[in-house]
Design a protein that fits this description.
Blueprint (H helix, E strand, L loop, with lengths): L4 E8 L3 E2 L12 H14 L11 E5 L10 H8 L7 E5 L5 H14 L5 E9 L13 H6 L7 H11 L4 H20 L10 E4 L5 E4 L11 H5 L20 E11 H7 L5 E10 L8 H13 L6 E6 L4 H10 L17 H4 L3 H18 L6 E6 L5 E9 L2
Parallel strand pairs: 3-4, 3-5, 10-11
Antiparallel strand pairs: 1-8, 1-9, 2-8, 5-8, 6-7, 9-12, 11-12
Helix pairs in contact: 1-2, 3-12, 5-10
The chain binds coenzyme A (COA).
The site of coenzyme A (COA) has 18 residues, from helix 7.
Length: 392
């Protein structure tokens, strides 16, 4: 019989702007961010012995430089036990969610009771374009430039006929909601303060996300131009910004959690990944969510809260409309504390981060919500979706 998997806790660093002069974490290494989050996670879960962890599954979109096999190396750098192995997973943006799915499946089949699921991306020290060398044969199938992220967002806007005014509305709402959530202290329980420095170089403990734009207006966004295409519609405001961030969670078999007397509220119900046309990678969640609904038998009407990673405004709206979830912002059940347009999107981290935020929303703002879903698209046409159920 399959074991039940419960989520014990999850936390993250604040998201820093990946900017070499202004980023609050500009002098913090990627592995230090992840180790800092692991330290915070274990400090607040003293009943969970790091030595009892079966393995770490960590998502990172780019396994190079400071993020090379970061699941293992950040663990070792933190002084954690050598006998705990790690698997650093690359599935582009869904890497962190994929890490969760791998770890949950391992517990379900009885391969150990306790796993750390993590995600980390440092888009400053490990830029998106670093080390890319596309196969010539791939270039014959997909014309050069057609699978770069901005180009795919432009294509989705065109093919799915997404109006720029609607996309600006999403960006506005995302930033306003994220700012409101931050000001109400809603992220406090998930953010582990890590030392960084402000724009002037003064050291401080970073406790809030740097990208949230308090001064955002529809008018200022109207004047912006697309950096991706001549006369294009996708501007920086409609794109998730370049970010540094890390997150980690403890997941466990329900039996073990009960044996240790741990608190938990949610169980992992299931996950699904789906591939789609890489020139429109952003609409991948349509297919992953459809698969998940079919696989779990839980319809979208039964899902009370959804986190959809806002890679770009165009793909977010296309996905929500095609799935019949929402027409436009303000959203009723999606990204209630803002999304990646405002909070940032450290690629391989986001898939796990949105699960942590989802469960915090369900705990605090939606105590009656039974099901919560998180989904995100990924570069080159990889999308994932996962479902959680409140059991306590
Ligand atoms: C879009 C992108 C190229 C912009 O990069 P950038 O030029 O370094 O971004 P910035 O944040 O500096 O924004 C550019 C300008 O727009 C302004 N701007 C950005 N968002 C704004 C907003 N919501 N309202 C008003 N102005 C805004 C900035 O202030 C800046 O203006 P300035 O140059 O006068 O300071 C980059 O964020 C990107 O590539 N994002 C997508 C990342 C990605 O592909 N992720 C994977 C998804 S699957």
């Amino acid at each position: 019989m399959m074991k039940e998997v419960v989520i014990i806790d999850g936390c993250r660093s604040a998201n820093g702007r990946a900017h070499k002069e202004k980023g609050w974490f500009r002098n913090v290494r990627a592995d230090e961010l992840l180790t800092g989050v692991l330290d915070g996670l274990f400090a607040r879960n003293p009943k969970v012995d790091p030595g009892s962890v079966e393995a770490i599954f960590c998502g990172t979109a780019k396994q190079v430089g400071q993020t090379l096999d970061i699941g293992r190396l950040a663990w070792l750098a933190g002084g954690y036990p050598e006998h705990v192995a790690a698997n650093t997973i690359c599935q582009q943006c869904p890497s962190g969610m994929s890490a969760l799915e791998h770890a949950a499946r391992a517990i379900m089949v009885g391969d150990g009771d306790t796993y750390i699921v993590a995600g980390c991306e440092d888009m400053l020290h490990v830029p998106m374009a670093m080390g890319i060398d596309f196969a010539p044969r791939l270039g014959k199938r997909y014309p050069p430039g057609s699978i770069t992220m901005g180009a795919t967002a432009e294509k989705v806007a065109e093919v799915y006929n997404v109006d720029p005014a609607d996309m600006r509305q999403v960006a506005l709402w995302s930033n306003k909601n994220a700012a409101a959530a931050r000001d109400a202290g809603k992220f406090d329980s998930e953010i582990i303060p890590i030392e960084g420095e402000d724009e002037e170089g003064n050291k401080f403990m970073v406790k809030t996300d740097q990208w949230i734009r308090d001064d955002i207006t529809l008018e200022s966004m109207e004047k912006m131009k697309s950096p991706f295409k001549e006369n294009g519609v996708i501007t920086a405001a409609m794109s998730s910004p370049l970010t540094q961030g890390a997150c980690a969670m403890i997941i466990m078999s329900r039996d073990k959690a009960d044996e240790l007397g741990l608190d938990y509220n949610f169980k992992y119900v299931g996950g699904a990944m789906a591939g789609n046309d890489p020139t429109m990678m952003g609409v991948g969640p349509i297919f992953a969510v459809q698969k998940l609904v079919e696989r779990t038998g839980i319809s979208l009407d039964q899902v009370d809260v959804i986190e959809l990673n806002e890679a770009f405004s165009s793909q977010s709206l296309a996905v929500l409309r095609e799935l019949g979830i929402e027409e436009n912002a303000p959203f009723k059940k999606v990204n209630l504390w803002g999304g990646a347009l405002a909070l940032g999107h450290p690629l391989g981290e986001s898939g796990a981060r949105i699960c942590i935020t989802l469960m915090n929303i369900m705990k605090t703002d939606k105590p009656d919500a039974k099901y919560g879903m998180a989904t995100l698209c990924g570069g080159f046409g990889n999308a994932n979706a996962v479902l959680f159920e409140r059991i306590k």
